[in-house]
Amino acid sequence: MLQTVEAEIDVNGNIRLLEPLPVTKPRRVLVTLLAEGGSAENGVVNTAPIEMPPAATTPETRRQEQMAWMKANAELHGGQYVALVGAQLISTGKTFREANEVARAAGCREAVVTYLPKPDEVIEMGGWL
After folding, report:
1. pTM of the predicted model, to two decimals?
2. Which domain holds residue 86?
3. Taking burial as the number of CB atoms within 10 A of a residue's CB, which of 33, 44, 65, 96 is the most buried?
């Protein structure tokens, strides 16, 4: 089971957990450094356990949930790539690759990664006239 806990790291690289973390045997960990000030501007933004949609949920329902989330969060996350599972934000990044790698590192290979435009951003697409 994947678990996310908050920690601080000092300039010498010493990590101090900010909450207890019971472990029964040695375990491997991944460390993601957040932007200065503790903001999850790029990286893992979801500290809750990742809940996969029920198997009975249809792809159309998940797509509608994702679209509703994107409309509701365009102001906050616009101009970034977002990784979503249904209406649950998994990670953000400046590039597709960055958001996808963080989502995969969090154990979520089923996340949909897409660019979320800013509310006032115009996206041009080429095509035939």
Report:
1. 0.58
2. 7-116
3. 44
